[in-house]
């Protein structure tokens, strides 16, 4: 019960501290808004279309297919230079240059290349290319069928093309779904559904590390040393602080979940699975925070290193951008940090309608992280309190 | 004052430390220190910086494991584990140890809760302690808004909430203005009168002399002498000096004085000067005889000065160093 005296003191202190509350609530919400708006751009790639002035029906059909594609938002440019400028200004993710004389080439049986321009920076461009490729491949398949029919059984190319189109509409023997981005990208939650859970992962962890600074500060007030003169074992002090920071992490998570649901329309998925995930993640953060509180010598050290560490791990773990967009080796490396597992679990819950069993693996890994961190943290803090309580 | 404190040799002592020793690496901080404190007794541990006072106190309070020796409070062993003996000890550390961002009352409640005071009793004791340390008016203020002296008082108060049997104070008056210091000393005095045993460290001689029933002098980790301030003073070979100034010749008077019992010698006088200086055993009790004698001989005494040796002199004598560096 004496542990709860410590819990109570710590909660009172933190909830009274305006700076702490800023970092706990306002900052995460502000960043959720910013990232939510930015990542929203990923659901539709902005593509500029530069048609050939002498375009025939085939070219027009391709342009129409591109405009209809769900992952693309097309805009026509009469002048290629204008389109290039828009691309450079990042107003577009890609520019499609319709080949000159597409119709004649196709009818003559020549192969044609559709040129797509992207900026070297920005992964959105390359992702857009695969979307465009899917549409073009679809279109090319139809042309090929029409050309094959014309060669084998006669008839006009245009007639056979119409037949091919009709046949495709009637029965599609092989369904192909266009991948918007590489890998699992079609599972990627977008907008606030991406930014809210990832910022929860990021900020609960960073905030818990900041709690470590408060522990270092308390160590230096001599209160712990003095408390040990009471009939209070060191483990009760450790437990008291751990409970306090766990409660704070849960409170912060609930705030972010609530604001996400109410203000940004985030559907948090299966409530049981989401609840377990929030709790396990709060335990991971608390373990890291208490460990920092035991290891560092001054609060300033924690303030200097904590947020940088939290942001670094967040980047590696896919809190800032989807790990689906990074190279495979980096994705693998990212899974050395708990953040990646938490983000994966949220992705499953939010975009794939996952439940407890579908995130069991992630939860197991996160629980292992939590147990390891909490064990190290309590051993280290207990050691610190009993050997040099005032330092 | 209620009953005078008993001696720890006749009454069951509240604190009983036996042969405590502790070293830090090569440095011996405390070496074979034994001390006992009776209920209601105020014991002063007097020593210069680095003498081992804080180290002794940390072992007494179960904050530091002794290399050798034992500590018992009311017959219960004290260890660094959270044993029941700790419930009886109130510890006031040398440096203020409080939550700076909690209020005065919240701090007192926190420490009360550590000792598992039930709610009602906690409320009552916090009010009593606030009154005792004269901070009732500031109860709702944050600690970091208090003056240094107020913080010191609260630092003491935090050790009192659970009504300890033994109060341990480590230099509670360091860096405190004279007025606060006076208030602190007054309260410590009262604790003793109320039957609390008090262990008090200081390097201020006056405090020890004024407050303590018994004083232990610690130097380089060793307890070099122990006793009531008067007993300690008597340890010194020095005696009181009485210096009498009169108008007129004093040679006859000086001779007469020398023949009185308890006058051990004549330091000065016996000639035609107007000053007589005597070395005596107990100046205060001898003074009436000296004045009577002067009256008989028609000597007109203008002034009397008595120099009693103090703990400063004792300390100098025992350790060869001055107490304050
Ligand atoms: N944790 C420690 N590690 C190493 N040496 C220590 C430690 N604590 C105390 N000492 C040493 O032990 C000796 C006694 O120190 P202590 O703090 O007990 O003295 P003190 O009488 O309380 O002095 P002061 O009047 O300055 O408070 C000193 O030489 C000190 O340097
Ligand atoms: Mg000291």
TrEMBL record, chain A:
<protein>
    <submittedName>
        <fullName>ABC transporter permease</fullName>
    </submittedName>
</protein>
<dbReference type="InterPro" id="IPR047817">
    <property type="entry name" value="ABC2_TM_bact-type"/>
</dbReference>
<dbReference type="InterPro" id="IPR013525">
    <property type="entry name" value="ABC2_TM"/>
</dbReference>
<feature type="transmembrane region" description="Helical">
    <location>
        <begin position="243"/>
        <end position="264"/>
    </location>
</feature>
<dbReference type="InterPro" id="IPR051449">
    <property type="entry name" value="ABC-2_transporter_component"/>
</dbReference>
<dbReference type="Pfam" id="PF12698">
    <property type="entry name" value="ABC2_membrane_3"/>
</dbReference>
<keyword id="KW-1003">Cell membrane</keyword>
<feature type="transmembrane region" description="Helical">
    <location>
        <begin position="363"/>
        <end position="381"/>
    </location>
</feature>
<feature type="transmembrane region" description="Helical">
    <location>
        <begin position="21"/>
        <end position="42"/>
    </location>
</feature>
<comment type="similarity">
    <text>Belongs to the ABC-2 integral membrane protein family.</text>
</comment>
<feature type="domain" description="ABC transmembrane type-2">
    <location>
        <begin position="161"/>
        <end position="384"/>
    </location>
</feature>
<feature type="transmembrane region" description="Helical">
    <location>
        <begin position="308"/>
        <end position="330"/>
    </location>
</feature>
<feature type="transmembrane region" description="Helical">
    <location>
        <begin position="276"/>
        <end position="296"/>
    </location>
</feature>
<keyword id="KW-0812">Transmembrane</keyword>
<keyword id="KW-0813">Transport</keyword>
<feature type="transmembrane region" description="Helical">
    <location>
        <begin position="194"/>
        <end position="216"/>
    </location>
</feature>
<keyword id="KW-1133">Transmembrane helix</keyword>
<keyword id="KW-0472">Membrane</keyword>
Automatic annotation (TrEMBL), chain B:
<dbReference type="InterPro" id="IPR027417">
    <property type="entry name" value="P-loop_NTPase"/>
</dbReference>
<dbReference type="InterPro" id="IPR003593">
    <property type="entry name" value="AAA+_ATPase"/>
</dbReference>
<keyword id="KW-0547">Nucleotide-binding</keyword>
<dbReference type="InterPro" id="IPR003439">
    <property type="entry name" value="ABC_transporter-like_ATP-bd"/>
</dbReference>
<feature type="domain" description="ABC transporter">
    <location>
        <begin position="15"/>
        <end position="245"/>
    </location>
</feature>
<keyword id="KW-0067">ATP-binding</keyword>
<protein>
    <submittedName>
        <fullName>ABC transporter ATP-binding protein</fullName>
    </submittedName>
</protein>
<dbReference type="GO" id="GO:0005524">
    <property type="term" value="F:ATP binding"/>
</dbReference>
<dbReference type="Pfam" id="PF00005">
    <property type="entry name" value="ABC_tran"/>
</dbReference>
<dbReference type="InterPro" id="IPR017871">
    <property type="entry name" value="ABC_transporter-like_CS"/>
</dbReference>
